[in-house]
Amino acid sequence: MEELILVMARALVDNPDDVRVEVKEDDRGIVYALSVHPEDVGKVIGKQGRIAKALRTVVASAAVKSQRRVIVDIIS
């Protein structure tokens, strides 16, 4: 799952070397904290959050097999 997020985020940004994903587990489920270069935050979020929503939808669909709730947080 972490690799999926990395591949999608790196394809969107101008500084792919600055893309990081931290994995945490809490009472909400598995939380993936995505951090990118400050100039690329808008590219990952998109207009009205459309790209972020699509990213979260793809990750949630991929996580169906694990029967766990998966959350993607974008750290700005």
Describe this structure in words.
With 76 residues, the protein is α+β, with helices and mostly antiparallel strands. It is built from three helices and three strands, in the order αββααβ. It has a single domain, classed as GMP Synthetase, Chain A, domain 3 (2-Layer Sandwich). A three-stranded mixed sheet has the order 1-2-3. Strand 1 and strand 2 form a beta hairpin. The two termini are 21 Å apart. The model has no long low-confidence stretch (mean pLDDT 94). It comes from Paenibacillus abyssi. This is RNA-binding protein KhpA.
Keywords:
single chain, 76 residues, alpha+beta, GMP Synthetase, Chain A, domain 3, three-stranded mixed β-sheet, 3 helices, cytoplasm, cell shape, RNA-binding, RNA-binding protein KhpA
Quick structural summary:
By secondary structure, this protein is an alpha+beta fold. The chain has three helices and three strands, in the order H-E-E-H-H-E.
Topology:
Blueprint: H1 2-12, E1 20-26, E2 29-35, H2 41-45, H3 50-62, E3 70-75
Parallel strand pairs: 2-3
Antiparallel strand pairs: 1-2
The name of the CATH topology is GMP Synthetase, Chain A, domain 3
Structural classification:
alpha+beta
The whole-angstrom Rg is 12 Å
Gross morphology is globular
Q: Please give the CATH class.
A: Alpha Beta
Helical fraction: 25-40%
Distance between the termini: 21 Å
* Biggest sheet record: 3 strands, mixed
Within CATH, the superfamily carries the name: K homology (KH) domain
Main location: cytoplasm
Subcellular location: Cytoplasm
GO molecular function: RNA binding
Pfam families: KH_KhpA-B
